[in-house]
Amino acid sequence: MDTITIALAKGRTADSTISLLEEAGIHFPDFSPKSRKLVFHNNDRSVKLIFVKAVDVPTYVEKGAADIGVAGKDNILESEADVYEILDLKIGKCHFAVAGKPETRLEGSQRLTIASKYPTVAMKHFQKKGIPAETIKLNGSVELAPLIGLADVIVDIVETGTTLRENGLEVIEEIESISTRLIVNKASFTTRSAAIHELINKLKSVMER
Ligand SMILES: Nc1ncnc2c1ncn2[C@@H]1O[C@H](COP(=O)(O)OP(=O)(O)OP(=O)(O)O)[C@@H](O)[C@H]1O
Ligand SMILES: O=P(O)(O)OC[C@H]1O[C@H](OP(=O)(O)OP(=O)(O)O)[C@H](O)[C@@H]1O
C-alpha cells in the first residue's frame, strides 16, 4: 500500500492538528503529547506523520520529503515555497502586524529598520507601500527590538496582543490573517491524487460539522 507522509509542525498547533486527524478517522495509537518521538503511523500504516519545526514544514513539502504539510500561513508566506495550499484548518488563528512604540510613524521616515522572524514578509509589505526599509532577522523575543533601539518597528504575529501590551508596544498596521493551512507537494498531488483527495475530503467533512 502507498503511504502518504504528512509533515506536521511541532509546537502550539500540534495537538489540535492531531485531534482534527483523529476526528477524521485517522488514528495514531503511539502518539502522546509528551512523547519525544518524531515519526508515527496510523493503524493501517497508510499515513506516516513526521514532526518537524514549524518553519521547516513548507520545505519538506516543496522538496517532496512529505506529500502533505500542516503549517501556519506565516511560515508558508515566509518560505515562498512552491506548493499547493488546499485547506484552511482554522486553528492557530492570529495575524501579522506591524508594531512599534505608540509615537512611531511609518510615513515620512527616511529608512525604516524592521526586526522580524519573517523578513521576507516584512520587506514585501514595505515595498508594496513604497516605504524604504531594511530588515533584521531575529528568531524570537522580537518585541525587544524597538525597546532597545535595534529596530524602529517589528513585523510579527499578534494573537491576544498581550506580548505587545506588556512591552509598551502597539499595532501600527495589520497586514493579514494567519491560520494553519494544509499544503500539498505539486508532484504528489498528481501521482498520489486518490489517497490525497481521500484525506482532504475526510478533513473537509470534519471542518463542515
Ligand atoms: N501567539 C500565537 N497565537 C496563535 N498562533 C500562533 C501564535 N504564535 C504562533 N502561532 C502559529 O503557530 C505556529 C507554530 O508556532 P510555534 O510557536 O509552535 O512555533 P515557532 O514560532 O516556530 O516557535 P519555536 O521557534 O519556539 O519552535 C506558527 O507558525 C503560527 O502559525
Ligand atoms: O499576541 P500574543 O497572544 O501575545 O501572541 C503573540 C506572540 O506569540 C508569538 O511568540 P512566541 O510565543 O512564539 O515566542 P517567540 O517567537 O518570542 O519565541 C509571537 O511572536 C508573539 O511574540
Can you describe what's shown?
With 209 residues, this protein is of the alpha/beta class. The protein has 2 domains: 119 residues, D-Maltodextrin-Binding Protein, domain 2, CATH 3.40.190.10; 84 residues, D-Maltodextrin-Binding Protein, domain 2 (3-Layer(aba) Sandwich). Helices cover 31% and strands 30% of the residues. It contains 8 helices and 11 strands. The strands form 2 sheets. It has a 6-stranded mixed sheet with strand order 2-3-1-4-11-5. The chain starts with a strand and ends with a helix. The relative contact order is 0.20. The mean pLDDT is 96. The site of adenosine-5'-triphosphate has 15 residues, from helix 3. Its main location: cytoplasm. InterPro entries: ATP_PRibTrfase_cat, ATP_PRibTrfase_CS, ATP_PRibTrfase_HisG, ATP_PRibTrfase_HisG_short.
Shape: elongated
Number of strands: 11
CATH uppermost class of the largest domain:
Alpha Beta
Helix content: 25-40%
Lateral arrangement of strands in the main beta sheet: 2-3-1-4-11-5
Tell me the count of domains: 2
Rg (CA only): 19 Å
Question: What is the strand content?
Answer: 25-35%
What is the ordering of alpha helices and beta strands?
EHEEHEHEEEHEHEHEEHH
Annotation field: number of helices: 8
Instruction: Predict the CATH topology of the largest domain.
Output: D-Maltodextrin-Binding Protein, domain 2
Mean pLDDT rating: 96
